[in-house]
Design a protein that fits this description.
The protein has 455 residues and is mainly α. It is 51% helix and 2% strand. α4 (60-72) packs parallel to α6.
Length: 455
């Protein structure tokens, strides 16, 4: 991208001869206020274009302003890291190439801006230690003071080394090429353009994508066409002259999906994220009943089980029942035991224990995790709610003789004592004492129900 026509007009206004008596510091501040940081390179390209084309910027005061703006464009950044640092070095390197006492190199082509004695003096001072003093002066003062004074020497060795190090990282192709715009170095014509013509020329050269001032002639990187490799087992390609001589063998069943399997996978994908409607649950369970092996092809994996349990516990129960003979059932049990305790996870475990024989260690570990969760939770309301759920869950397991109370007696009794303030815990404690005394009549009594039903 390039500067817009409006931006070019704003930039040319800063170079106007009317700014003869405005300090360079003020003009630089106006530049930074008019253009954001991301536009700096585009602005610098236009300034450099005008410094290269002497006929577009003939006045000494205008060139002084343009040179100062270009130097101050990347204010606050190390000079070696700015994109125009190499241009400043090339401008000052022409001392050795003078021709018959003039300051113009004999082989000068205009690619690097040609600086007068005044402009070279200005650039040396900007790169030196008195930069702050220089920019406080006006363009008129700079021309009056520096036009006839000797250009002081400056050591560019350190800057050149930094630039060489940076440029060594660039590919060779990016460091070659000539600009497509060549300046007219014959100044004997004495042609001067008015402001409107200059603006029109600069707009034509500096706009476009990419603009002409940023294009260059460079060697084209040619890639040779690789030779054809002939293999012994190479498949021969037949150029068919009579298509009717050949018939295409096509498998009509290829890429045709199993509609039933597809619908089941689609419903299961929804079940991981949202609660299915009653009809959707019935359809999915019906498909699983028709084809027991379908459960292995609907996208369920152990890591996805917690989402299924929380959103659709009935589907989770049906699926786990059909996976009981699977080699992965241990992994599913492990995930179920270690997932966050909730009403739905208890519902799934409770239904599984009443339907199939679950491993004893799995049931014991789940009970221990539930008790541990109740003891560690900080929220008092949530703690009371979970304790009620666990108590109802344990009573259900005990009354259905799913667990051997004696194996977990001490742990469950301590749990009841700790939460004896809760009615369901007290009821569970009484049931334990009845069983301990040999009274099995309590097993036939209906379990205490909490407000959140297990089913």
């Amino acid at each position: 991208m390039a500067l817009s026509s409006k931006d070019i007009v704003k930039l040319l206004d800063l170079l106007n001869e009317e700014n003869l008596d405005t300090t360079l510091e003020n003009l630089c501040n106006q530049l930074h206020q008019s253009f954001p940081k991301e536009e700096r390179f585009k602005v610098g390209t236009v300034l450099l274009l005008q410094l290269q084309q002497v006929d577009l910027l003939p006045k000494h005061t205008q060139r002084v302003v343009a040179l100062t703006l270009l130097f101050d464009l990347y204010r606050g950044e190390p000079l070696a890291s700015t994109p125009f640092a190499s241009v400043f070095v090339q401008m000052l390197k022409s001392q050795e190439d003078v021709n018959n006492g003039s300051s113009k190199p004999s082989s000068h082509t205009g690619h690097i801006p040609f600086l007068s004695n005044c402009e070279k003096n200005l650039l040396v001072n900007l790169m030196g230690y008195i930069q702050k003093d220089v920019i406080k002066k006006t363009p008129r003062q700079i021309v009056d003071e520096f036009s006839f004074s000797t250009v002081p020497s400056i050591d560019l060795t350190n800057l050149q080394l930094q630039l060489a190090e940076h440029q060594s990282e660039l590919p060779a192709v990016s460091k070659c090429g000539n600009p497509i715009i060549l300046p007219d170095m014959d100044h004997s014509k004495g042609t001067e353009y008015d402001a409107a013509t200059v603006r029109n020329i600069i707009e034509n050269l500096a706009t476009g994508d990419p603009p002409l001032c940023r294009q260059s002639y460079r060697p084209e990187f040619l890639r040779l066409v690789p030779p054809i490799y002939h293999s012994i087992n190479e498949i021969a390609w037949f150029h068919i002259t009579e298509p009717t001589q050949f018939t295409v063998e096509y498998d009509p069943s290829m890429c045709v999906s199993n509609c039933v399997s597809f619908e089941a996978r689609k419903l299961m994908g929804k079940a991981f994220k949202n609660v299915l409607t009653l009809m959707q649950q019935q359809n999915l369970i019906g498909e699983l009943e028709k084809d027991p092996k379908l459960v292995y092809h609907i996208g369920l994996t152990p890591p996805k089980l917690p989402d299924l349990v929380e959103n659709n516990p009935l589907i989770a129960i049906e699926v786990l029942l059909k996976l009981m003979q699977s080699s992965q059932i241990t992994e599913y049990f492990s995930v179920l035991v270690n997932m966050e305790m909730s009403l739905h996870s208890m519902e799934v475990v409770n239904r599984l224990t009443t339907t199939v024989d679950l491993p004893t260690e799995f049931v014991h570990l789940y009970i221990s995790n539930c008790i541990s969760t109740c003891e560690t939770i900080k929220d008092r309301y949530m703690q009371n709610r979970l304790v009620r759920l666990v108590c109802v869950f344990l009573q259900s397991l005990i009354r259905n003789k799913i667990i051997n109370v004696q194996e977990l007696f001490i742990e469950i009794q301590a749990f009841c004592v700790e939460f004896s303030r809760i009615r369901e815990a007290a009821a569970l404690f009484r049931l334990l004492k009845q069983l301990e005394s040999g009274d099995t009549g309590g097993l036939n009594a209906p379990p205490a129900r909490c407000r959140t039903d297990m089913c």
